[in-house]
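Predict structure. Chain length: 123.
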Amino acid sequence: EVQLVESGGAQVQPGESLRLSCVASGFSISAYVMSWFRQAPGEGRKIVAFISPSGARVYPDSVKGRFTISIDNAENTLDLQMNSLKPEDTGTYYCARRRYNASTLSPRDHDYWGQGTQVTVSS
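Prediction complete.
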């Protein structure tokens, strides 16, 4: 059974850092495109990072230079290091697996999701 379980969310002040983790089971995350999405209150899910099986990483401009996505193959874990956090980074963060034959990064092209972990950035 495929499962994704996130952890690491917390309430922090602007400028602080957090590290989110997503433990995968039932498949090898290194064989898939894996993504982190953020959902702010009242909004849809937006991608904040993805990593391909080749190790390519892509970030939207809003988080580029502050967020880093990585994989721990030994633990089958997907991580997201978030530095210099801003209030606009607030939301529920989800890790997700993209469908094997998909070609976009739309939420619709991701077939398994974690339950989400809440990040709140506020002074």
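Summary: The mean pLDDT is 96.
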